[in-house]
Amino acid sequence: MDNVTLARSLFGSSMAFHIIFATLGVGLPLMIIAAEVLFHVKKDPDYAAMAKRWTRALAILLGVAIPSGTIVGVMLALLWPGFMEIVGQVISLPFQIEIWAFFLEALFMSIYVYAADRLTPWMRIVSVVFVSIGASASAVLITDAHAWMNTPRGFSIANGQVTDVDPWAAVWNPSFVTTSIHVVASAYMTGAFAVASVAAWKLLRKGRAEREYIYHRKGLFLALLIGGVMSLATAVNGHETAQMLHENEPEKLAAAEGLFQTQSHAPLAIGGFVDEEKQEVVGAIEIPWALSFLAGNRFDTVVRGLNDFPRENWPPLFVHTLFNLMVLIGTVLIVLSFGALLYRRLRKRDYPRWLLRVLTLTGPMSLIGIETGWIFSCSARQPWTIYHIQRTSEAATTAGNLGALFVLFIGLYTFLLFATSAVMLFYFKRHPVARELAGTKG
Amino acid sequence: MTDSTLAIFIIWCFLFVYSILGSIDFGAGFWAMVFGQRADTNAADIANRYLSPSWKVTNVFLVLLVVALVGFFPLAMPLLGTLLVTPVCLVLILLTLRSTFMVYSHMSPRYVPLLRFVSGITGLLIPGLLITLLPVTLGGFVEMTDGHPSVLTGKLLMSRTEYAHLAFGIATELFLSALFLADFAREAEDEATYRVYRHIAVAIGPLTLLTGILAAVSMVPEAHWLVERMRERASWFMLSAAAFAIGYSALWWKAGGGRTGVPRAAVVCVIIQYGLASFGYGSAHLPYIIYPHLTVEQGITNAVMFRSLLVGYAAGTLVLVPVFIWFWRLFLKDKRYLKQE
Prior knowledge:
The complex is a heterodimer.
Chain A: H1 3-42, H2 45-79, H3 81-90, H4 92-114, H5 121-150, E1 156-158, E2 161-163, H6 167-171, H7 176-204, H8 210-248, H9 250-257, E3 268-270, E4 273-275, E5 280-282, E6 285-287, H10 290-296, H11 319-347, H12 353-359, H13 362-379, E7 384-386, E8 390-391, H14 392-395, H15 402-430, H16 433-441
Antiparallel strand pairs in A: 1-2, 3-6, 4-5, 7-8
Helix pairs in contact in A: 1-2, 1-5, 1-7, 1-13, 1-15, 2-15, 2-16, 4-5, 5-7, 7-8, 7-12, 7-13, 8-9, 8-11, 11-13
Chain B: H1 3-34, H2 43-72, H3 77-107, H4 112-131, E1 142-145, E2 148-151, H5 153-158, H6 160-187, H7 191-217, H8 224-232, H9 234-249, H10 263-285, E3 288-290, E4 294-295, H11 296-299, H12 303-333, H13 335-338
Antiparallel strand pairs in B: 1-2, 3-4
């Protein structure tokens, strides 16, 4: 592999690993707030137990999210010096503000966990709200830099030098708002479905005290409600994202849909594989006119195809599959969560076992959706690091040793995935919910 | 003051804060490991009581340092990134193992000895390794071939100054953390633990001075420009040594109730000691970031971004100061937290 590919592999795998923990680190605090608030409204100790147990899970996850975030932050500076040269001059504000959000999260997380017994209930809620604000703000600000890479603004380049810098124009670049809503809503969704998975799994086990089932049903209901609303919000916003791409990054939309010819009344291709020779998506289901409508709310919207652009500027064509996977997962999650909620509401019966089995998959599915979404967004920006400004090959480091580092880091991430899961299982096995519920009642 | 001087001064402040907090943090992890198996002392508990709420916050200072460096000196990144990618990535792996194992050890008591051992040893190495990056910036270890920079790793690993720096880093970490934990134990009214950490601080204190001098005199011939300039700034180092002498002697001052030593005064004096010495070192190092290839003037960002960043740092600091004060009160002052069980 050449140096650029190595740098991309090392950074990409670090991001892919960090995203799992970062996303849950943004999503879970919202669930904890919901449980804390419900506890104070309903005076039901089950919700206090939920908040406590989710906080412990969050503490373990943050133990990995914080160092892996440090890795990603430092690697960004080290592996992409050419990129950082421009970033530092144009878009360093969100990174800088992110630090303060990060401080807020770290400080209040410690306060919420280690000073819980010395805080009034009101201060406890305020603390966890600040944890959530800090985490979500971090996500928004880092997404801002990502959005700027897609729609760079706030500077011009003359003779290879950055000039006319307007830091706030860079911050408020055209895709910032849409993209950050997408990231935050999907993170809330993932946190909720992670909880839904665990609750559904626990409900499947037989021979437990009724008290435990009641506890898990409450958790599952809360998770499906928040997860359903957030997945719907993600989808609605996804539509705006498509229109934003149509406006600002037509190559990306064309690659996502496998569209070669510029046309009005463009069809939407679902599934299949993009074939460059045949200039079509092989094996796809085509919905006539739908892409034009998605892109501009009118059937006669002209959508630009890949052939409009020089071949060397095309994104890789496999991104069509990533894009489909992301949309498919989002759709399934909306149907599942609202379907399950309606079932309970209309039939007034327990969830059937087959449904619980399917619901255990919602957490992993959300994470796959998040991963495919990020990989899509970053791969479909290629060959650019900064869209139409800097190519990835110009941004990468020329340092050696990247191959050895790549192997080391892959080993580290594999180990941490197993170790963290083991610690999580071990901890909750030793602290079963039954004991906690007995404690709150007795 | 020019933009680049002000910017490098801010970076120096962040670096200084992180080196103090990081030393205490990593050192406390090491002492938690050393005393973890000993039933006759609370020393490990005291170290963990400090670490549990604070390590995340300390870690943010590391990220702050990197972000500030990139923000203020983006044009320095091509050279810095290329030179530092391998050593810094190794530090990152150690840092990750250290943090995750520390969190794991709180969650699974059965494996505590092993988990604490890994997090203690990796923590011990990190500050030592970070400070060994300094010789790279001094000249003599960077080779330019056709404008493409690389570190002479072999020469670096064979040089005495690299190991003097390593020794200085580790001695500093152990001294600062022991001194701080002595003060923390005094605050928790745990005199037995106080005596344990005071004893360690007394033993290691002079070593920091010794290894610091060694690191300076062992510098390679290419770095003599720096030694010369440090000699011109001898007064800073004299004052620093004086602060050390006062701080060290504070460990024998009489406190109320027949207790020996005023650790708070010792901590404050030693922080001043490191502040003076690192300021003397830093100002001698100017204007170079990497001698002789890169100066602060070549690395600085544009004036517009520089102003925005200044406003940003000022606003952020104002917002966070009250939270930091609250945090301090909850975990470093509140007797209910310090004296639990």
